[in-house]
Amino acid sequence: MSEPLLEARELTKNYGTVEALRGASFTAYPGEVVSLIGDNGAGKSTLVKCLSGVEQPTSGTMVFDGEPITLSSPNDARDRGIETVFQDLAVAPDLDPAANMFLGREILKPGVLGWLGVLDKKAMRRQAVEHFTRFGASLQSIDVPIAALSGGQRQSVAVARSVAWASKLVFMDEPTAALGVVQRERVLDVIKRVRDEGVAVVLISHNMPEVLSVSDRVEVLRLGRRVARFKAADTTVEELVGAMTGALSQEDAA
Amino acid sequence: MMTNEKTTLSSRSDEQRPSLLKRLTGANTLWIGLVLLALVAVFGAIRPDAVFRIDTFQYLLAETSVLLVLSVGMTFVIITSGIDLSVGSVLVFASVSSAMAMNAVSGGDATNAGWGVIAFGLLVAVVSGAVWGLLNGLLISRAKIPPLIVTLGSFGAAQGAALLLNNGSNVSGIPDKLNRTFGFGTYFGIPNIVIVAAIVTAAGALLLSTTRFGRYTYAVGSNEEAARRVGISVRGHLTKVYLLAGTLAGLAGFMGNAFFRVAVVTGHETDNLNAIAAVVLGGTSIFGGTGSMLGTVFGVFIPAVLEKGLVIIGVKEFWQPIAVAIVLVAAVWLDQTRRRARNQR
After folding, report:
1. Phi, psi (deg, nearest 5) at residue A139
2. CATH 3.40.50.300 intervals, chain A
3. In this predicted structure, what is the pLDDT of residue A254?
4. What is the mean pLDDT of residues B179-188?
């Protein structure tokens, strides 16, 4: 396999006396879907927060694209082409989908107006429509606030927003929780499409059949450490569950 | 199936951009505007001779100008889901310090002072308003103290400071030139003070609806966490919004000086509540995230028209606050019902 896109080694994260990560490692290769699984409290969310710049690990190293990095804020990660779809969506419900997609990245009008901070709403709207179409987010209208959309549509907007900006890597924390069957298929489809464009996707999910159907590889976290790595094609739900619960472990994985 | 939906999306969004009329009718703003129009029509039908006179409208507009400028700043604050109780006190502080500064540079009495002194007075008013606004903003965004408490504090502090400045009395000696031109002067029948307020309002409306500053104001009020995660400096933005509200309160203080020819230390205790009521009446949600400047304009004039109208048709004007209260509570109730219905999806 090629060089890893992102490699985290021996990350620890303490919240006071609580050790959320105890030397967790994680690897993602370019253009693959890698699932990060583990029981509740295994440290998945903390690990993703550290890898996406939301939190800073207490110790450990990260190598991205061949160079050692520290991420001091989500903006740091974003500047490197790393995006995150958060479990709680993090959209502004009163703004419309286009405004949400370009939030923090507004396109300004050219010339003096742009210098005054005037938005080019038409351009943003046009590009948003293109992006949403490309990533299969079906919305009845692009001119209503996000809050007027159904849960699934909101989710599609959040996913489409992140993948539109991710040039290297996108983290998706339970992107299909709370989705209907059709919407879920669509999100999985988006994940594959993003991967095919060469972007690495890190999927966090509790749904084992879903993990196996969409992933190239699976990494298992247990009690704040990586305990196993699998190729999705060669493993089974039983094996994954065994690794998650501690019934099975691979020594070389840590 | 997927292809079908895709086509639907793109064709819709290219062709079916809702018309201006449709967007207007969908918004609360239209209904608030209709309420205002209905009020004028009702009063006009009862006493057309007294209502439809140029000077009635001149007075109405001139008297409302100061409150309108305060409400422009308040609109930004409330859209961020904040509140600013200090605007009236900051207005008084700016008004007193500006009048005293003009007197000081004119040797004690600025009545006959020229434009240089007047410009200096404007600067003092705007800067002293801005300083209070900045203080509010920093305490709210950096120290994380709730806006209600911070501005309740500066509401008292600015009023107290204004009283300290001149030992609790009004400051006279406002330049005649200022009073004649900005206070009572007119341009094609429109009082100059109204023109100033209209320019401020138009600038505020453009800032809110067409710029990145406005977009961030909505975003911060709609979901602060989402704004932070996309990299918007929420702290910086909140500071700027309160700074804006304070600066406009300073300008309003200067306008008051021009209009009343004296810097008064009393009579502004409920400006904050009037501005909040105007903004909320105008359809801006007290929970943040939505609102418009046009709505605020309507919201400012509904109480003003009620007051003037009730006086003209001979109803005790004490009914005015009761009528405003009913409309206000109804407006918030409607907003809440709408939100609840929306969040249940």
Report:
1. -120, 140
2. 1-81+167-254
3. 46
4. 82
